[in-house]
Amino acid sequence: MKTVSKEEALNLLKEYNKEEFHILHGLTVAGCMRYFAEKLGYGEDAEFWETVGLLHDIDFEIYPEEHCIKAQEILKEKGFQEDFIHAVASHGYGLCCDIKPEHEMEKVLFAVDELTGLIGAAALMRPSKSVQDMELKSVKKKYKDKKFAAGCSREVIEQGAQMLGWELDKLITETLEAMKACEA
Prior knowledge:
Blueprint: H1 6-16, H2 20-39, H3 46-55, H4 69-77, H5 82-90, H6 104-124, H7 136-144, H8 154-164, H9 168-182
Helix pairs in contact: 1-3, 2-3, 2-6, 2-9, 3-5, 4-5, 6-8, 6-9
């Protein structure tokens, strides 16, 4: 695959995204993807996982109606290889494209994308504004409240946990740990 540094990937993300929220989301998912790569025994591919996480929503701000479709075009034009493009697009499976997550990395991305949004929103409600002092029970309480972070699909999160063969509690706990590891 075309190798890009984290700095180059971040610059590319910023080329297509101006809102701080989208950039922060990309950085959060990137950090979580690196964490999971190392945790699941893919340490040698951690940069690949991280870059996929960073660029997974490259097209969302400009092309929300064509999300994951435009991403493929942008990344192809920028010289990324098919495995990278497939990984990025697969997080929209069943939502905005028909590219199924196949590799464990793609399943992790599918599962944690929405969940990082929900956990991040829950952190903002805390006095600390941080995930560092957050526990599973706090996240689950917010998770059960369908009005809280309503844009974060519980169905997608649960589908991601199923793809990975994990219990929902394991996915939430591991994602929370990943976010704690990369919050800075």
